[in-house]
Amino acid sequence: MSENNNNLAKKLTFWHVWALGVGAVVGDGIFVMVGNGAEAAGPAAVLSYLVAGLLLMCVCMVCCELAVGMPVAGSLHAWSKRMLGPAFGTVAALCNATMNTVFLGSVGLATGRISNYFFMWVDDPGLSSLIWSVLLLTIVLLVAMSGGEVTGKTQLGLIVVLVGIMVAFAVLGIASGKIQRENYEPFAPFGAPGIIACIGMAVYSYMGPMSLLTTSEEIKDIRNLPKAMFWAFVTILVIYTIAIAVALGLVDYKTYGQIASPFTQAAEFAFGGAAGFAINFGAWIAAVTCLVGEIFTVSRLLFGMGREGVVPEGFTKLNKRQVPYRGLLLAYIVGIILIFVEFFGVFPNFYVMLANVASGLGATTMLLSVISTVQYQRKFPEEYRSLAWHMPAKGLVVVLALIGLAIIFYALFAADLLLFAFYIGTLAVLCLFHHFYSKPNSAKITQRKQEEDA
To answer: Do the domain assignments include residue 406?
Structure first.
């Protein structure tokens, strides 16, 4: 491995970043959890998914101002540190890194289960999915080790295929003449509570594009970041909203909670087994591309934080392709451990709780980032005015972003005080890490750099 030169290569184009954004949508959240959402909201699940996506789009778009003004790898840390203070910076970045690492485990498991549809290594489906999960996460690690440009190109190729599959499903589903109006009636059988509950499930799917903000140091033209974020969300929302509406129209939503993928059943109903195979391949691509975005995000955050001593400085080491490989390895190892913990059932219901807490941590990062973008405009007005890009109708977008985050926290924790206590405990641990490690170590790094400059 080469010595660290403290710089990441600027090789990402608009299309690379767009692909990372589209792929960051949590695959199992769309392809599997839509069934659970339909159980909660009925056909109105399509509205819940659309609203969840729009609200999280507001969060991510308003934060693009921070990325344009301060394009650094440890973005989520650097912004909150500068605007709110060091402790907030540490907590914001570690919350996001923790969320993505946990999702490596959960999405890795989902990818393994989807892969069983194509080929089973052994007769035991659980063991076969475990083998698939470990194998695919290892392949994703090797791709990420190859550099940001290779990662972006790989992601772009997979996303083009995924978009093609989902567009074909939507168009052919509508043209099939098998969509039944009665499948949409009543549209909201469980009323507003059901719609809100489904929004809570849907936000899990749309939290991933926040990872685009960590690419800012590697983008050739930083003005492409907000453009890529916007068009990634447009792509996501148009394709998945129409696809969900088609799936709900083809098959009665009451059957969806009983199957692995609502899209697969709908495709098989309308077009036969070959269509189900194609949709499962799309689900597989969605899950794999999500893994790519998650492991990429963790490594870049740790790299940026390592430069300031917030985490061990070893995370700033780069390989020959200018990739912060140690962060990739850490995320990979923890992801593999989580996969095995779930496989062996060491802690019953632990994984569900962990995934929900991780979603809460991701929402915490988003909240701190939204507050930071407001503070950016207030604390540094001249710098803010000179930005190459500003969020149109920013005041309205900030309000919508905060509403979205309030819904997320309510949906995650209102009905489970134990889960909320676990979330608060995790935040406390991160605060202790800052106090006893990040704060003193960062001071040492700062002092050392000042002495070297002198």
So the answer is: yes
Q: What is the DSSP string of 160-196?
A: HHHHHHHHHHHHHHHHTS---GGGG-SS-TTHHHHHH
Question: Domain count of the chain?
Answer: 1
My answer on whether omega of the bond before 226 falls inside 30° of 0, hence cis, is no
Pick 26 or 438 by higher pLDDT: 438
- pTM of structure: 0.88
Q: What is the mean pLDDT of residues 5-16?
A: 76
In a domain, 448, yes or no: no
Average pLDDT over residues 22-35: 71
Do 94 and 303 meet the contact criterion of CB atoms below 8 Å apart? no
The contacts found for 377-380 with CB under 8 angstroms, 24 or more apart, are 379/83
For the segment 155-179, the average pLDDT, to the nearest whole number, is 88
Q: Is 119 helix (H, G, I), strand (E, B) or coil?
A: coil
Using alpha carbons, select from 403, 416, 395, 335 the residue that is nearest to residue 366: 403
Whether residue 231 contacts residue 80, with contact meaning beta carbons closer than 8 Å, is answered with no
Give the model's pLDDT for residue 454: 66
Tens-place pLDDT, residues 345-390? 766 666 677 878 888 999 999 999 999 999 999 999 999 999 999 9
Backbone angles phi, psi at 188, to 5 degrees: -125, 75
What is the band of 7 on the pLDDT scale with cuts at 50, 70, 90?
A: low
Is residue 453 classed exposed, middle or buried when 0-12, 13-18 and 19+ CB atoms within 10 A define those classes? exposed
Question: In CATH, what number is assigned to the domain containing residue 42?
Answer: 1.20.1740.10
Look up the domain containing 350 and give its range.
Answer: 14-442
Q: Is 454 a member of any domain?
A: no
Distance separating alpha carbons of residues 99 and 136, to the nearest angstrom: 20
Which phi and psi (to 5°) does residue 12 adopt? -85, 130
With respect to residue 48, please indicate whether it lies within any of the assigned structural domains: yes
